[in-house]
Write a structure and sequence with these properties.
This protein is mainly alpha-helical. It contains three helices and two strands. It has a two-stranded antiparallel sheet.
Length: 67
């Protein structure tokens, strides 16, 4: 499954990428790729899987999602 952006959303992502190109080229690159390719949701990794893969303990179900 792939999430794609509407043309206006893609244009906004590209405009943000242009604004950031000189100060943060890494973020600009990601924004441009998102605008052109969308997001492959099947290739995304769940946050909890990332935590466990990094050796962090599993979150308790009652832990709030705040920093």
């Amino acid at each position: 499954m792939r999430l794609v952006f509407e043309p206006a959303e893609s244009d906004a992502l590209r405009a943000d990428a242009r604004d950031l190109a000189l100060t943060d080229p890494g973020v600009a690159y990601v924004l441009e790729r998102l605008a052109s390719e969308g997001i492959d949701l099947d290739a995304c990794t769940d946050w909890e899987d990332l935590r466990l893969g990094m050796g962090m303990p599993e979150r308790a179900a009652d832990t709030p999602n705040v920093a």
